[in-house]
Design a protein that fits this description.
- It is built from 1 helix and 11 strands.
- With about 130 residues, the protein is mainly β.
- Strands 2, 4, 5, 6, 9, 10 and 11 form a 7-stranded mixed β-sheet that branches. Strands 1-3-8-7 form a 4-stranded antiparallel β-sheet, with no helix packed on it.
- It is globular.
């Protein structure tokens, strides 16, 4: 059983930056591919970014590419989402998630249904 705890959310102005962290416990962290998703008010959950267990491969959704970066530190059992040039439309609850036993392919890591473990979420609010 893996437990995930997100942190780093908050309120920032347009153009600002935040770094979200997701600390994992209860498993061998490097065995898990990690993903970030977000849910904006009144909208469905969207895929944001994912990174392979080793950290050697990552993918960022086109909607945030060039502004968001995903990384991980397996020694610290933590995955990060660096968010720059934030816009009001980035306002959402951000969730990290973990999956294992699957190849690191877009069809897998972009689908929330593939992730077995989820954090509680952290609120990100961007003011205009």
């Amino acid at each position: 059983q893996v437990q995930l705890v997100e942190s780093g959310g908050g309120l920032v102005h347009t153009g600002g930056s935040l770094r979200l962290s997701c600390a994992a416990s209860g498993g061998t962290f490097s065995n898990y591919h990690m993903g970030w998703f977000r849910r904006a008010p009144g909208k469905e959950r969207d895929f944001v970014a994912a990174i392979s267990g080793s950290g050697g491969t990552s993918y960022v959704a086109s909607s945030v590419r060039g502004r968001f970066t995903i990384s991980r530190d397996n020694a610290k059992n933590t995955v990060y989402l660096q968010m720059n040039s934030l816009k009001p439309e980035d306002t959402a609850v951000y969730y990290c998630a973990a999956m294992s036993g699957t190849p690191f392919l877009y069809s897998y890591y972009s689908s929330g249904a593939r992730y077995a473990y989820w954090g509680q979420g952290t609120q990100v609010t961007i003011s205009s």
